[in-house]
Amino acid sequence: MYNATLRLVIVNDSATARAALRRAFDVPGVEVVGEAKDGAEGLSMAAALRPSVVVMDIVMPVMDGYAATRQIMATSPTPVVLVSSAVDPRDADVAMEALRSGALAIVEALPAVNDPAYETRRDALLHLLRSMARVKLDRLPLPAVAPSPPAPPPGSPETWRPSASRPRSAGPTPWWISCACCRRG
Question: Is residue 140 predicted with pLDDT exceeding 50?
Answer without folding.
Answer: no
